Each structure stands twice: as structure tokens, then as C-alpha cells.
Amino acid sequence: MLRLLNLELQKLLLNKTSKVLIFISFILPFFIILLSSLKINVFGFFTLELGELGIFNFPIIWHLTTFFAAQFKFFFAIVVVSMIGNEYSNKTIKQNLIDGLSKKEFILSKFYTIVFFSLVSSLLICLLSLCIGLYYSSYTEASIIFQETEFLLAYFIKLMGFFSLCLFFGILAKRSAFALAFLFILFILEWITFGLITWKFNADIAEKIQNFFPLKSMHKLIDQPFQRIAMSKFPDKETLAYDYAVHWHEIAIVMGWTALFVFLSYRLLKHRDL
């Protein structure tokens, strides 16, 4: 595993574009620190400081940071499809296979890289959340600090699933631009299917089925935290209540898609004439 991972990391770090995109994908989540220190002057009457509103308290901060950090996943998605596109355009895939790397090892090297970067990103978000939370949070008890850290697991699974989908589209299309276009097409198809099911049955059934779709299931792992923040400020508003928790069946669905995308990538490469 380490040999395959090391091989892939060397390829990425030798590519200037990949290095820049990897750097951006790791740096952007740290803009959450700027968000925490943001001060908004409201027409000169008073200054609103987000860090003092309690939104960075434990345990809600785990929900907040993982949700915002997940929005930057597209940058590393470009890296994933690019590393496949470069293999075909530079013909390094054929050279690797000639040098003794099997097609299974080739796919595994890509998947290990996906897992590695997803894990590194999750650890960075963990440290970032701890630092901001310890500075702003009113709660310092260990039982509260580490409550709801399952959002970190959901974040890791979400990244791994999304990048595995990018890997499959990269193998399928052979070109980065086409692979990214497939992502957009899949997004459109999911919503068209949702609309058709809603028209044929009803919105509740359509939503339950939609939650099994690849992109939607990944999105559902970490629901938006804004309604939850509003709930904490207006606890008497029952209309604001919603289920924001991380559920194990949602994790299982995304892990199932991840395994399928990696398997399909291997099958596609195995039966393709290079």
C-alpha cells in the first residue's frame, strides 16, 4: 500500500498544477478562521461579531466546520480527474503497466491517494475546529468537546465517496474536462429523476428515493447547520426543528457507492484496450 501511495504522490508533486490545487484545497478551509473573527458593522449602531454569537461553541462547531469545509472539495476533485487525464495524455498508464504495475494496483494507487488526502483533510479540520472551539466556546468539558465528532467521520466518508466518483468518471472519460462535465450531468439527472418521481407519486417518496442517489447521499451526510443555529437562538420555535444528525445508514449508503465506483473503475480499466 505504501509503495503504491508513494508512487502516486511522486507523480502529483512533480506536477505544478496538481501541487497548486492540492495547496488550495488544504488552505481554503482555514478561511473559516476569518469567518470566526469577522466583525460586521450594522449601520453604525452596533458591531456584530460572529465568534461571540455562540455558533462556534462545542459541539455545534463540528457540524459547522465540516459543512463549510466540504464545499471546497471541488478543488481536489480537479486533482483526481487530472491525475487520470494526465495518465492517458502522457501515456504514463501504459508505461506503468509495462513496468510491471497491474491494472488492479493502478486503481488501488489512485484510491489510496484519495483515502490519504481525505484523511489529511479530516485531521486538519479536526485541529481547526478544536482551536476555534477552545478559543470561543463557553463549554470546556471533555464530554461536550468531543460530542458529535461523528461529523468528522461523515466528512471523511463524504470526501472519499465524492473523489471515488471523480475517479470513475476520470477513467470513463479519459479527459479531465469531460469527467467534470459528467459530474454536472449526473447532478442534473438526479434532479430530473426526482422531479419525475414526484410527478408520478409524491414529494415524500421522491425524497426518500433521492437520498439513495450518489450525489444526494453524499450531500445528506452533513446537512446544513443554519437551521440548527437558528434553533439554538429560538428554542421555542418548533417549526425550526429538523434532523441534522449523522446516521449510520447514510454512511453505509455512501460507502456502498464508494466501493461500487472503485470496482467499476477497475472493471472498466481491465477490459479497456490501452
From TrEMBL:
Report the GO molecular function annotations.
Answer: ABC-type transporter activity
A single cellular component GO annotation:
plasma membrane
Answer whether the UniProt record assigns the keyword Lipid metabolism to this protein: no
Q: Where is the signal peptide?
A: none
- On whether Acetylation is a keyword of this UniProt record, the answer is no
Keywords associated with the record: Membrane, Transmembrane, Transmembrane helix
Q: Which residues cross the membrane?
A: 20-40, 60-84, 111-136, 151-171, 178-199, 251-269
A Pfam family it matches: ABC2_membrane_2
Task: Spell out the protein name for this chain.
Answer: ABC transporter permease subunit
From the broadest rank down, the organism's phylogenetic lineage runs: Bacteria, Pseudomonadati, Bacteroidota, Flavobacteriia, Flavobacteriales
